[in-house]
Amino acid sequence: QLQLQESGPGLVTPSQTLSLTCTVSGASITSLDYYWGWIRQPPGKGLEWIGNILYFGATSYNPSLKSRVAISVDRSDTSKNQFSLKLNSVTAADTGVYYCAVSPSSDRDWRPWGQGTLVTVSS
Amino acid sequence: QSVLTQPPSVSGAPGQRVTISCTGSRSNIGANYDVYWYQQLPGAAPKLLIYGNNKRPSGVPDRFSGSKSGTSASLAITGLQAEDEADYHCQSYDNSVGGYVVFGGGTKLTVL
User: What distance in Å separates residue B99's CA from the closest CA in chain A?
Assistant: First the structure.
């Protein structure tokens, strides 16, 4: 059964870089059957797709975040079975719950999702 | 501002039927991309409720149904139960600006 778990700092200083990792179990991160993605949810608001990656490195990002975001797969040590998110120059507007999730295609549904991790941007 | 538009809230009494709309445009729902619906219980991650416009994953009661027409889609819930109180989100794909995943703003369902 495919499962995902987010990890990373819960507090980030404004103007710094938010870094999160998603650890996958039940499937290999090297599989070309899956798009590995990040989705976030500001407090009390709706969901916002951040972007996704295929194992061999092809990425797709939300146009509104494209200049600040990078999603990568740790190909140097695939035994970790992880992919990561970096969002730079953060502001309070980047505060929210960050989820990692998986999809069989770039235009399909996302399932399952990780439990989510709350990231607060504050000094 | 979400690309897909949903009503902020809907409500209904137990046993009633409610619908939640999801309005898009010609570059997403109207471009023949499928619509997906997620249920998000309080404090939990979203869970897929409807895929491919009107299909239910295993384990989802048939009280939940989805439909799509033109640039809009709808989620219907019949025989409303207290446990259905949650946030509901629609999702599709938009082929503008290189293509990207789009969500609605979410709808809070209150069971009276």
Answer: 8
Low-confidence ranges of chain B (pLDDT < 70): none
- 8 Å CB contact of A46 and B98: no
The amino acid at A118: L
Q: Is B105 on the interface with A (CB under 8 A)?
A: yes
- Residue B29's SS3 state is helix
Nearest C-alpha in B relative to A107:
B93
User: Mind listing the pLDDT tens digit for each residue in A84-118?
Assistant: 999 999 999 999 999 999 999 888 999 999 999 99
Strands A11-12 and A117-121, by their bridges, are parallel
Q: Are B86 and B110 in contact (CB under 8 A)?
A: no
Q: Please say whether the beta carbons of B54 and B68 come within 8 A.
A: yes
